[in-house]
Amino acid sequence: MRFADIHIHALAGVDDGAATEADMRGMIDAAYADGTRVICFTPHWYPAAFSDNRRASEAAYSRAAAYAVSRGYDLKLCLGNELHYTDGCTERIAEGLCRTLNGTDNVLVDFSENEDADVIMRGVRSILNAGYRPILAHVERYTRLHSDLREARALRADGALIQIDSDSVVGKFGFGCRMRAKKCLDGHIADIVASDAHGVTRRTPQLSAAFGLTERRYSPEYARALFWDNPLRVLGIGE
What is the pTM of this model? Predict the structure, then answer.
């Protein structure tokens, strides 16, 4: 099975992901060996924490693309951001400072893990109201959402998409995240599973274990939608 990963921090030296060129190359190698054939790099857009990393991200992306070509990988690469929501951040999207995913209208957005549920709801809806489609990153990690995931259901009904992390599916983020991820899958609330990878030794870019669990527990069709069809769709990429 092939995978498309829309959430990964593998560009060298631009955020809290890959620190070095060796890390970046190692993450690309690991993802490819595991079956990933499409990667959308999503460095954090959070200037208060990572300054303005646009130029550094573009330079690292060019080096990553050159490396993939040098290895002979059949690998499609593209670029986006993970937007950390703050008041007024939709203006940064409109100004082109924060990238959408592969130039589409889809925006990967995250919040602090202990953010109030009503702040998350308002933030996601403000992105919708600005004309973009938000993809709420790692929904299972927001501790103040209700355990029945009513907020995620409501946002999805409004037009947002829901992403969960592969490590949560297999239990690497602990029992709470695993159970919330399972509820997302059980209720077909999740639209996309992505790695949210940050390194070569922890939070790594492998998706196959989570895919296998999803395929066995639910169905091959549901697994394919989460790990391939839906990610390609939000990136605007045909097979």
Answer: 0.97
